[in-house]
Amino acid sequence: MPAARTTITVSAAHAGYEVLIEPGLLGRLGCCVAEVAPHSRALLAVDEQIADRYGHRAKESLKTAGFTTSTVPLPARESDKTLHAVEALYEVMLEGRLERGSPVIALGGGIVGDIAGFAAATYLRGVPFLPVPTTLLAMVDSAIGGKTGVNVTLPGGRLGKNLIGAFWQPKAVVVDPQLLESLDVRDFRCGLAECVKYAVLADASLLEFLSDNAADLVQLQMDLLVTLIERCVRIKVEIVEQDERDTGRRTLLNLGHTFAHAIEAHQHLDLRHGEAVSIGLAAAAHLAVLTGRLKSDERTRITKVLEGFKLPLRLPQAVEVDQLLNAMLYDKKASGGRLRLVLPTGLGTAEVTDDFPGSAVQDAWMHVGAAVVARG
Ligand code: GLY
Question: What is the CATH number of the domain that holds 294?
């Protein structure tokens, strides 16, 4: 018996859309696309690492549904998420004579979705876009909510992440949890860090679910994965519906991320985003304890779940605390105000706040392995 489909409707200012979750859905991709963006021509942007495994299946399904599809393999590296990659897509779209109604489909993780989504947002002033996420992180986060964009190099050489972009809501999000079977286990665990984030900020019972089912989730037990993805997507949808343009409540999704971005600025640590988020969650939970927002046994419950997924809670090697604070300060300067952080205020609730002493932020960094270097 085929698995049942879960459909979650997202209300957006101009047009709502559906998130479709169903194991094996890639084989029916063409029908999903034809339903919301019927046309004769389409563009398929696909992560080059999975093009062989999934690209042909996607293209076949699109062909059966009547689409002539131009396919572009894209590298899924942050350093390749540039306007050059978008231009390369425009060229293929022009060659393939894609029109206003021609859909752009992104088969890959967050990077492929960001590049293809921005191309879809801007080609002919906007064409239909459908992400088909292939990582857990993209399934529960980046594919939903309409953020698209690329990085630029800032004067001085620093990477300006997602500084060029557009809000462009998809026509539908096609989630096939079976695609996770090809995902590197380290990347899968990274996606789980974002699921823990959702649990901490919005749903204590999800934390319970993650803790009770840790081993089976890592073994990719499909019914549990579907439940996990559905629960996380519902949290994200509830938040983006209230704050589509990221001017308020959507900031909550940054729980752990200001710490994580400061960690990621230290590339020699060789941490992936979700690993940096895991350490960031540990730091944010500690800061919340220090400032009386969270009980220490609640912090322990959070860190135990992260540990259960073999996610790191400490920096793999000491980094000078001043460097980490400076990296956070850079974020503060970028937003033109005081340092604001998302901190848990219990299990399943969080707030955006600037009400904490600087010394407590330093202590939080020390708690996750930062070091003070004595200067003589
Ligand atoms: N990934 C954070 C957001 O969509 O706002």
Answer: 1.20.1090.10
SS3 at position 19: strand
Question: In this predicted model, what pLDDT tens digit does every residue of 282-304 receive, in sequence order?
Answer: 999 999 999 999 999 999 999 99
C-beta separation of 199 from 210 below 8 A: yes
Mean pLDDT of 121-146: 98
Q: Which residue range(s) make up the domain with 360? A: 232-367
- Tell me how far apart the alpha carbons of residues 118 and 108 are, in angstroms, rounded to a whole number: 14
Is residue 175 classed exposed, middle or buried when 0-12, 13-18 and 19+ CB atoms within 10 A define those classes? buried
pTM of the model: 0.95
In the 8-state DSSP scheme, what is residue 310?
Answer: T
Question: Does any ligand 1 atom lie closer than 6 A to the CB of residue 243?
Answer: no
Same structural domain, 153 and 257 = no
Task: Identify the residue whose C-alpha is closest to ligand 1 atom 2.
Answer: 253
Residue 335 is predicted with a pLDDT of 62
Output the CA–CA distances (angstroms, integers) from residue 53 to 77, 189, 356, 373, in the order listed. Answer: 19, 21, 49, 49
- Phi/psi at 37 (5° precision): -145, 65
Last-in-domain residue among 152, 182, 212:
182
Pocket of ligand 1 contains residue 253 by CB under 6 Å: yes
Q: Check: CB of residue 315 under 8 Å from CB of residue 327.
A: no
Whether 236 lines ligand 1, by a CB cut-off of 6 Å, is no
> Is the same domain home to 136 and 22?
yes
Cβ–ligand 1 contact at 147 (below 6 Å): yes
101 and 26 in a single domain? The answer is yes
| Residues 203-220: tens digit of each pLDDT | 999 999 999 999 999 999
Distance 350 CA to ligand 1 centre (A): 16
Cα–Cα distance between 364 and 263 in angstroms, integer? Answer: 13
